[in-house]
Fold these 2 entries.
Entry 1:
Amino acid sequence: MTAAEQVELIFREEHGRVLAALIGQFEDFDLAEDSLQDALVNALERWKVDGVPNNPGAWLMTVAKRRAIDRVRRSTTLERSLGTLDPPISQGPTERDQDEIPDDRLKLMFTCCHPSLALEAQVALTLQTLGGLTAPEIARAFLVPEPTMAQRLSRARAKIRNAGIPYRVPPIDLLPERLGALLAVVYLIFNEGYSATGGDEPIRKELCEEAIRLGRVLVALLPGNAESRGLLALMLLHDSRREARLDEAGQLILLDEQDRSRWDKMKIQEGIELLKEAVALNDPGPYQVQAAISALHAEAPTAEATDWHQIAALYKRLAKMSPSLVVEVNRAVAVAMVEGPLEGLRILDGLEERSGEYYPFHVARADLLRRLNQPNAAAEAYTRALALCGNPAERRHLQRRLDQLTPPVK
């Protein structure tokens, strides 16, 4: 691995932790991000000569902090306030903060999820700042064009700056009003790790693990909240299959073809127990329903034994709780497994006008057309999906499907 590749890998792994600490100390998003970028450039230069340090995260933090202080000192508008910035740098988190929210990244996530910002802006800003996701990745997660997402992120930052939204942890009794956005952030970080929307790696293990870690902190922080338990259960159940999703050559293995002996039994057991605890709190929500769907897959000894009738029923319930294109596409797939591909295709046809750049819609449509023995239409849908998909393993899978429909001319 080259020094540049090592820097990129470490930067992805350490981005959220270092940036959270910098923003907590300097209370300035732009200053923190610019300083971390300076540290990254420095790392690219120094690590080629000196090698990667034993604790690269601490190295990045130290250099970024120095760059931030230098930037403040050079700024004529901020120079007068340098004295007020020094105490937080030396003091660190207060005892109250540590008692109430024992995690710097989670603290900043709650700060980003301020109710005066639109929900989508809360989620997008936190994903970019702490999840380390790029604007294009976030745009794909929200199914919107990249320029639209860039404008939303810019407006959110401007509102934080102009409205003087404080960078502080809200009291415990105000945390629930920000929980919805925070759960969405954690799940989107997990999804980006589980199936990366871009880059060379189809699975970003560090993002999956970070999301699960944050989920555990949330459950401990709010023990009476059912949806935080449901989300953690959902992530664990999905993550239990991670090692079985790719073969040795990096080719994608679909759920019904995976070696179930490679699924992580401990994660499955923990996820199911968490789901039971969530259901017992008698406060149903969409994450619990999704976890129940994932549990049905996890508990089936074979693909053929999967209870698709129950899964289709759960997706119907989820569509009422949280209507979205994503849910409807998944419901169409489940219905196709129960009632046949024609019924699934009928549901998809009703979604076509709003399918846009959501490539799983085109994948689902292509698969159903293939099962209906309509190769030309299926090939067109696979081609459309390929044009929109950024995950390398999924692209290779789609290309194989397309090649099977359109063999080369001899």
Entry 2:
Amino acid sequence: MAEAAGHKFGQFIGEYCESAIEPLLQEFAENHGLFLDRKGARPARSGKELRWVDSYGNGHDLDYVLERGGTPEKVGTPVAFIESAWRRYTKHSKNKAQEIQGAILPIADKHRFSAPFLGCILAGVYTAGALHQLESVGFRVLYFTYESVIEAFAGVGVDVRWSESTPDREFAKKMRRWSKVSAKKRVEVWSRLLKLNQRNV
């Protein structure tokens, strides 16, 4: 069961990074008169998934879209498509890069006249090949290494290191430790991660 526990723990890390990114994107949108769309209910579209359709009629679920002229009730012109992803092992990084590329490029091509920015915010373990693949097709990549994520969480006393052999009880111990970290301290993890990667940011 360690693999399942590890997958669940990885989801927790990924969701934390994504939730920490969102306020920064929202602030950017407000400062530049843009609308930030993300997963969740919005009157302008059906369902809670953020889905855009490419020129071939295929829908792609996305993480964030910045729109010019968008409102909760009206879909605007896309000016940026931004994906975020966490991966623990290199064996999964290439597949994730291909997944992101396959979802975004057909939509970006459809809206090429609005010159959309293509962005990826990645965390964890990604090979140089996976990063290059995204950059070679026009993505700007912000990459938080696994080591920097470990160091950021260590600042609040939580050890997020693990491997495929880590037992379930260790994952439970890590989550118990995190549950005791105050909301104020949890924000410090993201602040620390930004400082550790300031040059790339």
